[in-house]
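Let us work through a complete example step by step.
Step 1: write down the sequence.
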Amino acid sequence: MIKTKRHLNSFMKLYQYLVLALITIPYYGFAEMQHDDMDMPGVLGNYTMTREASGTSWQPDSTPMEGFDWELGDWSMMTHGNINLVYDNQGGKRGDTKTFTASMFMLQGSKELGEGVFNLKSMFSLDPLMGKSGYPLLFQTGETADGKNRLIDRQHPHNLVMELASSYSYPITDNHSAFIYGGIVGEPAIGPTAFMHRLSGKDNPEAPISHHWLDSTHITNGVVTLGYTTSYWKLEASSFHGREPDQYRYRIELGNLDSYSGRFTLNPNKDISLQISAGHLHSPETLEPTINVNRVTTSITFNKEILNGLSQTTLAFGRNSPSEGHSTNAYLLESSWQWSANNTVFMRAEKVDKNELFLESDLLNHTNFNIRKLSLGTVHDFATQNNYTLGVGIVGSLYSYPSELNTFYGNDPKSVLFFIRAKL
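Step 2: predict the structure and record it as tokens.
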């Protein structure tokens, strides 16, 4: 156990130094942005659509756009999605096994309306089919399966409806626009691009254990966002319903717009996107309705060509400060590298403060434990046919945690997932 921890800690430090070195390379400065006339325009401003990610978040412009698009009268349509069949084996005393499917399907359309652009977005998932308790995932916490006890060492399923939203952007000058985004299900302006949508993390079928510090608001039942964009930066503010989805994954439960957030995003060139955001979440947890949370996040995502293959890296930090109890932090570092046309390798390293690893009745409830996790994986995609790709992959994980948890998790648990993936 000690040897595994030492290797894991050394690897995380080495990788962090490497990322910081890449970020500071001089040619990652403010470069002149050139937009190809063939690029699809963004719906929130005058920039290429490849910049747009989950909700109103941005990613680097050089990120490839998956899926396909077509014209339907005056509408420009786009769709993409994926479905994973996963065999999950989480090791240790608290581990479990399960075979399940995780999926996402997105459909959106935009058209010119007056001098601006009107956009409709929808996103759905078949995750509720895996059951209210989701799938095994060591050290994951957040939400509930029965309305009485929190999920521990399990990842909750996503809702059937992940997004039903619209937006309208209006040009102020050639490169400046104002926009409004709203939906009965949407994503407020806080955090980085959601993990299932960013290139650095989307090939990993596991949710990050830092999810509830960074991007857990990506499914919010009620949100309105006002924003302003230029060629390089975006400033936006949201009002939204702060309560996270409950165990009834097939329905939409609207509530008061009782929470708020703001985010500033900077894309200095086509390969970099940075954001800093903060928000007040009113009563986010069903089981702790009297506790509010102030959240701060910051992240940088950058793309780089390595041996003719695109690599994307995301470095993120999140801090939750509840109205009762101590603040907790989460750090995430993840990368993916498509080293050939059909092969991708990926990694994710996390360091998270966890204080919900035990039930309310346990003496260790609300005791804070610093958890470290390292995941490595690869996926091979077979030849593409008719806009569909079929792939197979594997991801394995190692953990480092305080010795007080050995009694509950074992001395050296390991986890592995095998998956088959189909995507547009």
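Step 3: interpret the result. The CA atoms of residues 349 and 374 lie 5 Å apart.
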